[in-house]
Structure formats: C-alpha cells, structure tokens
Amino acid sequence: MAEKSINSGGLQTFRPSVWQTWRQRWPILIWLGIAILAWWLYDRAGADEALSGILEAPLVEVTVVDTGRVVEVLVVPGQQVAAGAALIRVDTSLIDAEIASTMASLELDRIQRERQYASAIQRVQAELRDLRLRQAADTVEAEIYRVEYQRQQRAYEQQLITVDTIAAVKARAESLEKVSALYPSAIADAERELAGLLALQADNSENEASGEAVRIRTAQLALLKQQREQCTLYATTSGTVAEVHVHPGSVLIAGQSAITLLTRDPLSVYGFIPETDQRTFRLGDSLALQGPHATSTPAAGTVTSISPIIVTIPDTASSLPNRFIRGRPFRLQLESVPADWTPGQSVLISPSRSSWWTGLLGQ
User: Fold this and answer.
1) Contact, 145 vs 176, CB < 8 A?
2) Distance of CA 162 to CAs 88, 152, 154, 155, 169, Å?
3) Could you give the CA distance from residue 28 to residue 47 in angstroms, rounded to a whole number?
4) CA 249 to centroid of chain Cα atoms
C-alpha cells in the first residue's frame, strides 16, 4: 500500500500505511506472545508438579482379648454398624464347660450348706420340744408336791406324821420350783437360735458364701462369665465395616485384629513434601485438591499439621525394592468431602489460586 502525501502549509508530510505500522510494532507482539506462552507453561508445570496424597479416614481395629476359634461372622464389608453391635462370635465351648463345672460345685456347696442348716434346725427344734415337755412335766410335778406339802404340813401340825416325812416333800417341792424358773430363759435361747438358723437357711444362695473355698469359686464364676462375654466382639464405635480379616473356623490369637471399621469422622488427606521440593506450607494454608480422575470433583483442604523435620519413609510408588524417599509429611482437613471420593484414593495437592495473577506471583 502506498504512503499518503499530505500538503499542509507548504510542508509535505507522509503518513505510514497500516502494514508499515504493524511491521514496526512486531517486537511488542512477539514479547506479548512469549509472556502468554510463559504463563501457560507455568500453569501447566504447576499442575504437573502437584503433590500427591492419600485420602484418609480414621480406622478402628476390633481385636480379641483371648485366643479362640471363630464360629460366626455377623457382618460383611460395606455394612453400616452402630456402636455396640455384635460383629463376631468366638467358640465358647471350653468356657461353657468350666462355667458348668464351677456352677455345679457351687450348687453342691449350697446343698451341703442346706443340709447343715436343716440338721442344725432339727437339732434345735428337738431340744426346744424337749425343754417344753420337761417344763410341762416339772410344772405339774411341782404343783403336786406343793399340794402334798401343804397337806403334810397340816398333818404335821396335828402331829400325825414326823418332821422327817414333811422335810423330804418340802425339799422336792422347792427343787422343782427352782428348776421350773430356769425353763423360760432356756426356751428363749433355743428359740433365738432357731430363728437365726431359719434366717441363714432362707439366705442360702450362690452369693451367700459360707467359706473361703466358696468365695473363691464365686469369684472364678464371675471371671468365667466375663470371659464368655468377651468371646463376642462388639463394635466400639459407629461406622462402616472396611475389612473382615477372619472367617468361620479360623483361629484368632489374643490381640489380633478381626474387623476394621471405617468411622464416620471427617476425612483428612495425608501428603508428603519431598526433600527436593522447595515449596513450603504453613498451618492454616488452604490447598486445592483434585481426585485421580479428570472428572473428579475438586475440593479444598486446610493444613492442620506439618512435620518440622525431614523423615525417611519407604517409596511405595517405586517397583524397586529397598527404595526410600525423604521429606516432610503433612495433613489436610477437608472443608467438604465430594460424594465421588473414596477413602484410600490418591489425591493431587496444589496451592489454591484465586486468579492467574496470584498464580503468576507464586502466591
């Protein structure tokens, strides 16, 4: 395109064409393109260098107290359980036999005590009957001698009998009166003894230990019943059954985990900053999270803990044996949990970028 000539006041000026104008400004366009490309590469590099983490969830291991054989598994993976729900039952045949034996011994002791009480009660009852019969007989005899003494007293006053005759009757009457006076207290003592024995007989039960041996067996029975209760494993908290480590017929060792429960507590993400990575996070920083798939719902998390030192952990991502990586572990608390996320999955972690300008500045 030709340049245009303009005559103004005798002076001739030239105005460059559009092509000449763009040709003169091409360096600016090149630098603008380089800036855009640099930003795009920076953004892509930031995405490619995102840290990897694992979506965690608190797990609870349900363990057994004593060694035993599993007879029944009551749950399956994925099943929701409430706190206190039965999960596994362990064989209790040996404990049941010990409980039956101990209960039989306690019952035998109770029967023996019952017989002892019955024998003592019968003895006291017989003594009480004998005392009452003797009291009645002595009371009648004393009355007879009293009347006889009065009759002989009148005969003696008439000098019909001698003093020796009346003295013998008098002595016998006085003796019977003294003996009769002792019967009420003896009968009262026997009645109190009988009442005590009857009360002990009524209270005779398993919990009424009458000796050291019985108390020991009672304590053993309580311990056996407690052990039998522990043969059924219960959920210690509400959650979802994540893993079942046993099956009917397998043997559980004391302290071995039988069930793994995924609790309903908020999920968190465990991450790791390699030693060679220059990025640093602080407590309270907000980071962007992305699932392993492009279609995964993004989320955000807050840094709740970060190790102040470099640690060494096994490199699980490498197929080579005895490989380790060094760095700083940290943990994020999710602000919200996407519905399409699964505990244990991989998560990509990167700083949150509110705009391209903050990303360009590395903030």
Assistant:
1) yes
2) 103, 10, 12, 9, 12
3) 29
4) 25
Contact 354, 298 (CB under 8 A): no
Per-residue model confidence (pLDDT) at position 210:
55
Measured between alpha carbons, how far is 268 from 9 in angstroms, rounded to an integer?
A: 80
Range 116-124, long-range pairs (CB < 8 A, 24+ positions): 117/197, 117/200, 117/201, 117/204, 118/201, 120/197, 121/194, 121/197, 121/198, 121/201, 124/190, 124/193, 124/194, 124/197
Cα separation, 32 vs 17, whole angstroms:
23
Q: Give bridge partners of residue 305 from the DSSP assignment.
A: 331
Query: Where is mean pLDDT largest: 13-17, 202-206, 225-229, 255-259?
Result: 255-259
**Two tokens, residue 34:** 């380089």
Q: Are 261 and 78 in contact (CB under 8 A)?
A: no
Query: What length is written for the chain?
Result: 363
**128-148: pLDDT as tens digits:** 888 888 888 888 888 888 888
Provide DSSP, 21-76: HHHHTHHHHHHHHHHHHHHHHHHHHHHHTPEEEEEE--EEEEE-SS-EEEEEE---
Say how many C-beta atoms besides its own lie within 10 A of residue 317's C-beta: 9
Residue whose entry in the numeric block shows the structure tokens 């559009």: 18
Across 300-316, average pLDDT: 86
pLDDT at 81: 93
Q: Say what angle helices 163-202 and 93-157 make with each other, to 10 degrees.
A: 160
C-alpha to C-alpha distance for 312 and 5, rounded to whole angstroms: 77
